[in-house]
Specification:
The chain is mainly α. The protein has helices spanning 3-8, 14-33, 43-51, 57-64, 68-71, 80-92, 97-103, 107-137, 153-180, 185-210, 216-237, 274-292, 296-304, 310-331, 334-343, 355-390, 398-421; strands spanning 240-247, 250-252, 255-257, 261-267, 346-347. The two termini are 23 Å apart.
């Protein structure tokens, strides 16, 4: 069966077709919202300011917001306040007995935690939008034009309400896509924002190459690096460490069951694109506020938190390592795995069931998570220095490539699961498409 026939199978399943159309429709709504400006802004002066912000923290934040920040649209804050709130709540579950208890209460407890995350999103959005509003009043474009022609409390209150409402609406869109669409809604919103800026970045690169600002050899080097990074992402995301599991023979009724060998697959990058997104969100929150406050020491902080800066790289890599281990611990519990294995009569050859098994699994998981964190750090950091030293548009950064490729693999894997479940051929003829949920 050809690839076109495999793709055509997607639209032969009514439920899957409905989910895909629903997802695309909400992403279109998101893109429309990124072009609706906040009242009281001189959009021409603001765009002029952002033309000089390529490669800075403003350009980085603008990439994640899908260009909404450069227009200060209603979605200017993007989905990052929600991600920051999620991080804070998940960290608090480790120190708060109340939240830890809620986490163990199943669906009812998860609903309560989700509610607290939403409240936290609103609070962080108000703080961040107020910093942006105050900062914009004191800023001018490179030609001297005022960003905010009529500054004052009316503009500040309107900006805080507009940007906070925009983030709340984006949060709702993401939840709707996750529940009724296909793929992870929050990741797809970030994905759509990055992809939307890719054509402009390509044309900008071609213009720079035409004027001689980017040599042809540098552009060829960039293409080679991009292909290598994409290949490394695809290869590593499918990488697994398989632990052999032996099941003991047991009698069930009149039949002898068990005795077969299976495997416990542990992914090299269990946490997927979550660590870079979380790390970026944590760094961008104070950096964005610092960028809009016209104080020398705050501008120094903003400069230190700029991609390509040594301090930023060290902080970013440290955050990636932390969230790799943290998120892996959240979604994978070796104790539960060993207990379930013991109940079903399974054991790892040479390892005693129970506590010893959980220790063995945890040891292996810690080792491969370390290598996964190194892989994520290299993919996210190294391209930033190409951007810094060769004047490359920021959309070609390693973090954006990782998110685009990773989210694409996840979404395709979900579609593949729907196809195979209904006895249709998937995107590949042999085996299964390997995603992070595989």
């Amino acid at each position: 069966m050809s690839g076109a026939d495999s793709f055509g199978n997607v639209f032969r399943i009514p439920e899957l077709k409905r989910r895909i159309i629903f997802t695309l429709s909400l992403l279109v709504v998101y893109r429309i919202g990124t072009h609706i400006p906040t009242p009281g802004i001189n959009t021409v002066a603001l765009l002029e300011l952002f033309e000089k912000a390529s490669g800075t923290i403003l350009g980085f934040f603008n990439m994640f917001s899908g260009g909404a920040l450069s227009r200060l649209s209603v979605f200017a804050l993007g989905i990052m306040p929600y991600i920051s709130a999620s991080i804070i709540i998940q960290l608090m579950t480790m120190v708060s007995p109340y939240l830890a208890r809620l986490k163990k209460e199943g669906e009812a407890g998860q609903k309560k935690i989700t509610q607290y995350t939403r409240y936290g999103t609103i609070v962080l959005s108000m703080v961040q939008s107020s910093g942006i509003a105050v900062g914009l009043e004191a800023m001018k474009s490179p030609s001297g034009g005022l960003i905010v022609p009529h500054a004052g409390w009316e503009f500040r209150v309107m900006t805080i309400l507009t940007l906070t409402a925009g983030t709340a609406f984006l949060m709702w869109l993401g939840e709707q896509i996750t529940e009724r669409g296909i793929g992870n809604g929050i990741s797809l919103i970030i994905f759509a924002g990055i992809v939307a800026g890719t054509p402009a970045a390509i044309f900008q690169s071609m213009d720079l190459m035409g004027t001689g600002e980017i040599p042809v050899l540098v552009m060829l080097l960039l293409l080679v690096v991009m292909i290598f990074v994409v290949g490394a992402i695809v290869y590593t995301e499918g990488g697994q460490r398989r632990i052999a599991i032996q099941y003991a023979k047991r009698v069930v009724g009149r039949k002898m069951m068990g005795g077969q060998t299976s495997h416990l697959p542990l992914k090299v990058n269990t946490s997927g694109v979550i660590p870079p997104i979380f790390a970026s969100s944590i760094i961008m929150f104070p950096a964005t506020i610092a960028q809009f406050i016209n104080e020398p020491w705050m501008q120094t902080v903003a400069g230190m938190l700029t991609p390509g800066n040594l301090f930023y790289s060290m902080l970013f890599v440290g955050a990636i390592f932390f969230f790799c281990y943290f998120y892996t611990a959240v979604i994978f519990n070796p104790i539960d795995v060993s207990e379930n294995m013991k109940k079903s009569g399974g054991f790892i050859p040479g390892i005693r069931p129970g506590h010893k098994t959980s220790e063995y699994i945890d040891k292996i998981l810690s080792r491969i998570t370390f290598y996964g964190a190194i892989y994520l750090s290299l993919v996210c950091i190294l391209p930033d220095y190409l951007i810094k030293y060769f004047n490359i548009p920021f959309y070609f950064g390693g973090t954006s490539l990782l998110i685009v490729v990773g989210v694409s693999l996840d979404t395709m894997q979900q579609i593949e699961s729907h196809l195979v479940m209904r006895n249709y051929d998937g995107f590949v003829k042999k085996g299964r498409l390997k995603g992070r949920r595989g």
